[in-house]
Amino acid sequence: MPTPSPSKRLLASIHDVGPGFDRQVEQLCALLDLRLGGPRFAMLVVPDHWGQHPLRQDRPFQAKLRAWSDAGVEMFVHGWFHRDTAEHSGTASFKARHMTAGEGEFLGLDETTALARMTDGKALIEDIIGRPSAGFIAPAWLYGQGAQAALAKAGFALAEDHWKVWNPRGDAVLAKGPVITWASRSTVRTASSIAFAALARQTLSALRTVRIAVHPGDVRKDALLSSIDRTLRHFAKSHRPSAYAEIQEPGVDS
């Protein structure tokens, strides 16, 4: 098996981690652990997914988060509810309608509300895992002006969107390139995401940092799991499975 380049990194993450997706997260953990040679990935934790699965009240799942964190899994704050209840207009309306299924929670929040949810989520998750969180990633990777302003004040070391990873304290871009992810909510989106992953395997190998993100819904479709497995195996040959914390120096991929 080829040895990955020490200068190239593979950043993998499991989104929407919380009590409501316990079984699915366990399944994805097993797959990533196998293909990456250990717990060399991140989890994006939702404190109360859609207001139906409060992490604060689920002690068994808190214990799992602490154990994963102790094993080396990085923990990001991933919104609070994950659900978007704001009214949108203009560009934001297009993003809310076409880029996510009502889950862009931080797209329409004002700065005060966004900052409160960020800091509350940070406090909750850090109390559970007993160490600093890795950063903040908005649900669906969507940030409105209020969320962008709040990020500069929330004290997170890292943030991420579809196209980059950056330090919100000074806006230094730490990695560039599209995140490879999959969609399960419709046949058309599933097919297009599988096609994009195949294209990414052919075209993104030159990037210094490749990002792969999986979601609990992916486990419902064998075709998605097969594509995810193939993509992980492909990039693990050329890119070293790494922690997000390793890209803290600005200009790594610029």
UniProtKB/TrEMBL annotation:
Q: Which InterPro entries match?
A: DUF2334, Glyco_hydro/deAcase_b/a-brl
- Enumerate the SUPFAM superfamilies for this protein: Glycoside hydrolase/deacetylase
Biological processes, Gene Ontology terms:
carbohydrate metabolic process
Offer one Pfam family short name for this entry.
DUF2334
Task: Give the protein name, as stated in the record.
Answer: Polysaccharide deacetylase
Species source reads Novosphingobium malaysiense
